[in-house]
């Protein structure tokens, strides 16, 4: 919703100058906390402290702006979260902060959205939000200690390609020698599957994302990845019934959200570049960056893949790609579908990118593949540089 604050606020250089940016973080934290306690459609008094704080601050923001319609209770606030995109909230936020489909709670599945998780993880007080990083850093440490970069790659591939494990499959990981250095981590990574995923005694995985699908009341199925849903109805992958259900495990949500999800985009890009005949190494140097691409003439690209819904948050997190293993050029890459879902995604990223990362371009996967193809065909040195904003079209 446009407010009287927008004119002067738009001139500010830093998101934190906008009074309600911190409120969005508080709202995201409250939604995550409530979802951890149970279904968002039902909860009991007393409200968790974070949820009560989010309600109080939202009411105050509405009163300050003279808004008549105010959420008077936590159920009403959650109704706003799944019925109003954030751009329609009466808040003082950056003009390019949100689009028409940016909800904190998914309107269909009534669970926190990817956007909600991204804002939650950016909160300074969200210690649990950094669980995924702690797991990855611990895996790096253990594999370095064992002098086994191959074990680190095997661990990352496990999280990306096997987010759901049957009891038998979990046993197989225990006997996999390539995973020996990280065995102590796996019990922290996988947890029993809650009943909300069960349908008629079985479970179904997404054929694209490999994570479990959530059955909806109308008989449809819902995938938790935004990018997958934009591709249409999720194709069914594995149907798990009978003996497969006993001891069924899935990765905990932070790892599914911030490791499996982006990892799917990484391995898809790896396969795409390999098809062109390029040499591609995943997670080189214990994950210094995501892909190391070597051309026949020895020219090397370093690529980090970022499957983020919110380009402003992505821009604010931008930092130069690590210099080792060495390369000639580097960039960040976002899936085209993700870029197309937000107006001026690439431009918003650039406007929020800090000066220290000014030379770090963001390209869509389609644009990167086009540049790689042109270089292989002998074009005069196409480079990894920012292009004019085209909101995710193949030229972006």
TrEMBL record:
Domain REase associating with pPIWI RE: 263-379
Source species, domain of life: Bacteria
Pfam families named in the record: pPIWI_RE_REase, pPIWI_RE_Y
Domain pPIWI-RE three-gene island: 23-166
InterPro entries reported for this sequence: pPIWI_RE_REase, pPIWI_RE_Y
Full protein name: Fis family transcriptional regulator
